[in-house]
Design a protein that fits this description.
- It contains 9 helices and 4 strands; from the N terminus they run H-H-H-H-H-H-H-H-E-E-E-E-H.
- Helix 5 runs parallel beside helix 7 and helix 6 runs antiparallel to helix 8.
- A hairpin with a 2-residue loop joins strand 1 and strand 2.
- A two-stranded antiparallel sheet has the order 1-2. A two-stranded antiparallel ribbon has the order 3-4.
- The protein is mostly helical.
Length: 180
């Protein structure tokens, strides 16, 4: 399912939607739901919306991810964003944060986890041509649809040794070089 999501071939949409509706295993269902939103935004919306009521957090996370993909589709954007905002009001903790993160990634707006500002933003129509779009960045082949990237620097003893030259190196200098 994750591979089909990355490939993005719409020909797989029917099989993914059928599997997402029938799959009993929550981890697999999560990835199927996320893939369904990418492959068929229109067909996936009903099953994604229904999956937000699933008792398993993993399934609801897949539905949130799938809705994020649907929100990138011009024909389903408004409906998917509205469902994601409703999810902010309903979900606690981590899933609420995931929904807010996806809303921010799709819209380019930083309005937090409170559904009020998001509802107001959705009700205010944007002027033509002013919708903010995020151009995905790639890092080692992984798409990063964000404007902000955090780099975590490892400072263990491994960072003191260059495997190619077999010589000691300055950790900070090496970290800067790797980040660039």
């Amino acid at each position: 399912a994750a591979g089909l999501r990355r490939i993005g071939d719409p020909a797989a949409a029917g099989a993914v939607l059928a599997a997402a509706a029938a799959e009993p295993a929550a981890p697999a269902r999560r990835h199927l739901l996320a893939a369904a939103g990418v492959l068929d935004p229109s067909g996936a919306l009903p099953i994604l919306k229904a999956s937000l009521a699933d008792p398993d957090d993993r399934v609801r996370l897949g539905a949130i991810e799938g809705l994020g993909a649907c929100a990138r589709s011009p024909t389903r954007r408004r409906e998917a964003l509205s469902i994601l905002v409703d999810t902010l009001a309903r979900e606690p903790g981590r899933l609420k944060g995931d929904a807010a993160r996806i809303l921010e990634a799709v819209t380019g707006r930083k309005l937090g986890m409170n559904p009020g500002p998001w509802r107001a933003a959705l009700e205010t129509p944007a002027a033509p041509g002013t919708e903010e779009a995020i151009t995905p960045t790639e890092y080692y082949g992984i798409q990063i649809p964000s404007r902000r990237i955090v780099i975590l620097v490892e400072a263990s003893r491994e960072m003191c040794w260059d495997r190619k030259s077999l010589q000691s190196v300055d950790r900070l200098e090496r970290a800067k070089k790797e980040a660039v």
